Amino acid sequence: EMDGYQATEYIRSEEVEETRTIPIIALSASALPEDRARCLQVGMNDHIAKPINLNVLQKVLAAY
Description:
Blueprint: H1 4-12, E1 25-28, H2 33-42, E2 46-49, H3 54-63
Parallel strand pairs: 1-2
């Protein structure tokens, strides 16, 4: 089993070449700046903190 960080690292790895460009957006209750930074560091495209703001969700999804 993998957490979201491990799954992202695997998807972005060279082992899975055809999936490296798939957008990955974290949805997490962890809203600290360092949580967002870690998501981006492992290869996620963006991070949305809970509770979900529909305007933010729409904006982020539209970007991808």
